[in-house]
Specification:
Blueprint: E1 9-11, E2 32-34, E3 51-53, E4 64-66, E5 69-71, E6 74-75, E7 87-90, E8 95-97, E9 100-102, E10 105-108, E11 112-115, E12 120-122, E13 125-127, E14 130-134, E15 138-141, E16 147-149, E17 152-153, E18 161-164, E19 169-171, E20 174-175, E21 191-193, E22 198-201, E23 247-255, E24 267-269, E25 271-275, E26 292-294, E27 297-303, E28 306-316, E29 319-327, E30 330-340
Parallel strand pairs: 1-4, 2-5, 3-7, 4-8, 5-9, 6-10, 7-11, 8-12, 9-13, 10-14, 11-15, 12-16, 13-17, 15-18, 16-19, 17-20
Antiparallel strand pairs: 21-22, 23-28, 24-27, 25-26, 25-29, 27-28, 29-30
Length: about 350
């Protein structure tokens, strides 16, 4: 791509003939900017950088990039073209929002390289990029102070973030291997299928409701047009998790003998499975046979003179199920033919 310009916002999510923001459809019109410009699927003749902002570009926060997949840049040339396969910034600090950086490569900074640059990177996902030296996700060099907020950097080769004479501000991000900063976590983001480029979050993702609503340039929508902040707090990465429709189900499990907690409030590891009615017993401890399976913990409490572990799971679509509750601290409990409306 040619250098961006100040005062210009580039949006993804349009058909070629669309004329207004109302025509934007992120999910239908996935916008991919690829460096694979030569022989298809042959990296050696890919362009060095998908976005190249060299010395003299002078970009600031009014140059906004919003809603793209940036992929297949291969910075395998001579200086400066061995830095920043996805994006190269020299004395340029654009705003980058709702973008996915994947399958980019370089010697330094596979996904993004910053020199004398401090871009605002918000709700982006970096995954499966690579650097032969350092910074598979991002390399910050010589007085670069990017603000990276609500982002996921996971599964990049060569380390996620590498800094040389630079101090980025990394806030409320999920970083493979961990990174110091307010609100940062290091849990597996639980993408749906990162190998095929599906960076939606699964229901068990630790990135749900763990971002910050005060992020710079916080987008109103995610990469496919779902509203941001569906809960109380925005999610990390390009995807705002949308729960499937259905019913939440509260499960009570009786605890007896050595499993009775003291004091009340003891946490019990408890896995809940919803199976087709009439399932054979061999299915009932096999999560792969379940229609729904919810691993987790339950809170024990006194109810009607007995001790029960309670957990709410779902959503579950209406229907009839055989429901199991199993744990390392309690016997398998099975309730057959339960109807959920």
């Amino acid at each position: 791509m040619p250098p961006h310009q100040n005062g210009v916002t580039i949006y993804g999510g349009f058909l070629s003939y669309a004329g207004s923001l109302e025509d934007r459809d992120w999910e239908t019109n996935l916008t991919v900017l690829s460096g694979d410009i030569g022989t298809p699927n042959y990296a050696d003749d890919n362009c060095y950088h998908v976005f190249y902002h060299p010395n003299g570009s002078g970009l600031n926060g009014t140059a906004i990039l919003d809603g793209f997949t940036i992929t297949d840049g291969n910075a395998n040339g001579s200086d400066p073209h061995y830095h920043g396969g996805g994006m190269f910034n020299y004395d340029s600090s654009p705003a980058v929002t709702n973008c996915t950086f994947s399958d980019n490569s370089a010697d330094y900074g596979g996904g993004m390289f910053n020199q004398y640059s401090s871009p605002a990177v918000t709700n982006c996902t970096f995954s499966d990029n690579s650097a032969d030296s350092h910074g598979g996700g991002m390399f910050n060099y010589d007085n670069s102070f990017p603000a990276v907020t609500n982002c996921i950097l996971w599964g990049d080769t060569g380390g996620e973030i590498y800094n040389y004479n630079s101090t980025p501000v990394i806030t409320c991000c999920d970083i493979d291997g961990g990174y110091a900063g307010a609100g940062n976590i290091s849990g597996t983001p639980m993408f749906v299928n990162p190998g095929s480029g599906d960076f939606h979050l699964q229901a068990s993702s630790p990135c749900i409701n763990t971002g910050t609503n005060s992020a710079p340039n916080l987008p109103a929508e995610d990469f496919e047009g779902d509203n941001r902040i569906l809960g109380d707090v925005v999610d990390m990465g390009v995807d705002e998790y949308v729960p499937p429709s259905g019913t939440m189900v509260k499960i009570y499990v009786n605890l007896q003998g050595a499993n009775r907690p003291s004091p009340e409030g003891w946490q019990v590891p408890l896995n809940i499975g919803f199976y087709p009615p009439g399932s054979p017993n061999s299915w009932l401890l096999n999560p792969g046979s379940a229609i729904y399976y919810f691993p987790g913990t339950a809170t024990a409490e006194w109810i009607n003179g007995g001790t029960k572990a309670t957990v709410t799971v779902g959503p579950v679509n209406p229907g009839t199920y055989d429901i199991t509750a199993d744990s390392s601290t309690t016997l398998l409990n099975v309730k057959k033919g339960v109807h959920i409306e």
